[in-house]
Amino acid sequence: MARKTVIISDLSGEEGAEEVSFSWDGQAYTIDLLETEKGELAKLLAPYLKEEFKVKAGTIKATPKKKDAGLDAATVRAWVLENGVKDPDGKPLSDRGRVPEYFREQYRKAHA
Predict the structure, then answer these.
(1) Burial of 112 per CB tally in 10 Å (0-12, 13-18, 19+)
(2) Which of 11, 12, 52, 112 lies 20 to 30 Å from 66, alpha-carbon distance?
């Protein structure tokens, strides 16, 4: 039995796309694009890629922002929860997951 895989563009919903991989700010992405959509993306990125340098896949690692160097998420979380700090929408910080920048900023202000 013969099978045919059809890839649909994530942008237009049309058939005939191909997977395009790229990374931004240390995060890898894939998107299915038609050849014309891929060309449009390449055209948009062209001015930025003039100064680029290529790296092997898997060698890019996200680095912490300098202002957070030494700022431990567990310490920030404990301080936020102990002090009942809530985000601008009135929501408390969850006891798991990433510590949003808002809470990190509140910690920095309190300990400046």
Answers:
(1) exposed
(2) 52
Q: Which domain holds residue 51?
A: 1-62
Question: In the prediction, which pLDDT does 112 show?
Answer: 83
Model-level pTM?
A: 0.46
Q: Comparing C-alpha atoms, which of 24, 30, 25 is closest to residue 7?
A: 30
The amino acid sitting at 2 is A
Residues 90 and 57 in one domain: no
pLDDT one-digit tens code per residue, 16-39: 999 998 888 778 889 999 999 999
Q: Are residues 4 and 47 in the same domain?
A: yes
